[in-house]
């Protein structure tokens, strides 16, 4: 294996790192117009590179917060733009980048690292577990109408993209976040600005105003098929609502836009209630269910102490974390909280599996049945299901 150096990148090296990453996912380099926006997506000091002696690999992060069960927001980093040059893969470069990042995150007091995986099998070896999932939902607009008893109220305001980029961040910040949602720092909104401005069709936003002010928004675009341009599909990029009335109002607006055949909403929560609002539920369809965010518990004690739990008998969970061994050990998890213990374990699992359980997406009993959790106490899986379960499905809705 070749020797290489891992170090933090300077601002002047960000574009080369961006181009290297884009090459690894088979995208062309950013042109000058795109780089104006892409450059602002780099948090100062957040990118690292592997050099041998030229740049052969890169990864970066930005600071944010993750909402956990109970509503607390804890420090997280979003990990992105991870790539290794094609002629230097399988030589330990990726492992060096990821473990260097993890050590830095732990030293900085980060509780979670969060990423979207290009391939499902890559990041579990570094302690990342699939923690949120999404579904893509489409509606035949010609048949898709809301039930007459669907909530009604508030006012809607249509915005162009420039105005939307001014208004939507504040609306998003003011909403109650479900488990798995994250804050959207300025660097993330700059990424969205780049993506929305380069979209082939004009992007618009609609904001719902409730009694207390803006309480929801959706961004969308309408495009035609290449062969039959008169066949139009409305694509929903973002849809966030702080109330049932706002949710119904936004969908009522989208389904009421003329000269549209289909409305497609990508990356929706698994428990999104849109089909329950439709007068004809067969006018809608779940096109896809996929994995969304993978999280890494960087500080297991802080993560377990930071969320609330359901009502069940306490369970002792023994965690193994070979990359950050300070996390390893037994934790007593119960309705009153979680903390270290010297009591014998009822369940044994690695930190990757703990990440899958943490936000409530996967039931411990199901993971035990799949052989991913070792059961020492036969009563522990059912109790853990109740403790880690959540009222709503974990979901982020943010991509980076």
Which keywords apply here?
400 residues, alpha+beta, Aminopeptidase, Nonspecific Lipid-transfer Protein, Chain A, 3 domains, seven-stranded mixed beta sheet, 19 strands, globular, acyltransferase, transferase, GNAT_dom
Total strand segments: 19
Oligomer status = single chain
Largest sheet: 7 strands, mixed
Q: In what range is the share of β-strand residues? A: 25-35%
Sheet with most strands: strand arrangement: 1-2-3-4-5-14-6
CATH class of the largest domain: Alpha Beta
| Backbone shape | globular
The stretches of 5 or more residues where confidence is low (pLDDT under 50) are: none
**Helical amount among residues, as a percent range?**
25-40%
Provide the residue-averaged pLDDT.
96
**CATH fold name of the largest domain:** Aminopeptidase
Strand-pairing-aware structural class: alpha+beta
| Terminal Cα span | 31 Å
The CATH architecture classification of the largest domain is: 3-Layer(aba) Sandwich
Subunit structure: Homohexamer; trimer of dimers.
GO molecular function, one term: aminoglycoside N-acetyltransferase activity
Protein name: N-acetyltransferase domain-containing protein
Organism: Amycolatopsis mediterranei (strain S699) (Nocardia mediterranei)
């Amino acid at each position: 294996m070749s020797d290489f150096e891992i170090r933090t990148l300077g601002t002047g090296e960000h574009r080369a790192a961006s181009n290297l990453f884009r090459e690894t996912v088979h995208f062309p380099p950013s042109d000058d117009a795109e780089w104006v926006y892409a450059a602002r997506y780099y948090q100062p000091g957040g990118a690292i590179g592997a050099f041998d002696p030229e740049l052969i690999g890169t990864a970066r992060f930005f600071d944010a917060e993750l909402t956990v069960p109970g509503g607390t927001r804890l420090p997280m980093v979003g990990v992105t733009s991870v790539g290794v040059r094609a002629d230097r893969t399988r030589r330990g470069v990726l492992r060096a980048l990821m473990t260097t990042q993890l050590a830095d995150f732990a030293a900085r007091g980060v509780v979670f690292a969060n990423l979207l995986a290009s391939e499902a099998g890559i990041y579990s070896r570094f302690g990342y577990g699939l923690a949120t999932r999404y579904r893509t939902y489409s509606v035949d607009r010609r048949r898709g109408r809301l039930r007459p008893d669907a909530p009604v109220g508030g006012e809607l305001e249509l915005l162009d993209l420039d105005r939307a980029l001014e208004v939507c961040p504040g609306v998003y910040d003011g909403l109650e976040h479900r488990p798995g949602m994250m804050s959207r720092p300025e660097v993330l909104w700059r990424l969205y600005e780049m993506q929305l401005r380069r979209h082939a069709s004009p992007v618009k936003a609609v904001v719902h105003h409730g009694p207390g002010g803006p309480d929801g928004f959706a961004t969308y675009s309408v495009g035609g098929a290449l062969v039959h341009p008169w066949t139009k599909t409305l694509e929903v990029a973002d849809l966030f609502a702080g109330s049932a009335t706002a949710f119904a109002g936004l969908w009522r607006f989208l389904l009421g836009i003329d000269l549209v055949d289909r409305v497609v909403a990508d990356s929706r929560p698994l428990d999104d209630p849109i089909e329950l609002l439709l007068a004809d539920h067969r006018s809608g369809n779940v096109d896809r269910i996929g994995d969304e965010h993978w999280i890494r518990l960087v500080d297991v004690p802080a993560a377990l102490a930071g969320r609330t739990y359901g009502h069940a008998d306490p369970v002792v969970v023994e965690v193994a974390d070979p990359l950050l061994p300070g996390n390893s050990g037994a934790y007593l998890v119960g309705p009153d909280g979680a903390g270290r213990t010297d009591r014998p374990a009822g369940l044994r699992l690695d930190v990757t599996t703990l990440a899958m359980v943490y936000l409530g997406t996967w039931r411990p009993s199901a993971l035990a049945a799949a052989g991913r959790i070792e059961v020492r106490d036969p009563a522990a899986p059912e109790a853990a299901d109740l403790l880690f379960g959540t009222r709503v499905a974990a979901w982020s809705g943010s991509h980076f």
